[in-house]
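Input sequence (143 aa), recorded before submission:
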Amino acid sequence: MSEPARVEDRREEWNGPVPVPTGATVPFWAATLEGILRYQACDCGNRQLYPRAVCTGCGAEDPPFEASEGVGTIYTYTVCHVPGEPGFADRTPYVVGVIELAEGPRLLALIDADPERLEIGASVEVTFWQVSDEAAVPVFVPA
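Predicted structure, token format:
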């Protein structure tokens, strides 16, 4: 990633779920506070996100992290009209999508955009909403 992405402080207004960094996820969440999206890139060639203690391709322990460019495309998405979490009631309708990063891994994330203007295959880039002192949630916006 050439430049860190924007990190917006949303701690005062956020009432959704808050990630708790533990184990293999600690380096991932620490990087989010710096505006960096990290994924694991195992020596076997497998790339995975969200972080796990073992590679889902070969079973190697503690696959190393690499920084993503923070860009990708919308693989699929849905518009939520009924909140999946109590803290999302005031956000409806909101968009949740599977983002395919340029490096290959896919992740489920919020897409901060007008649902009427989205389409599968559209380019997106990561931003972060800081929701606690320990984590910022990756949120994607149209590129």
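Checked by second reader. The CA atoms of residues 129 and 137 lie 5 Å apart.
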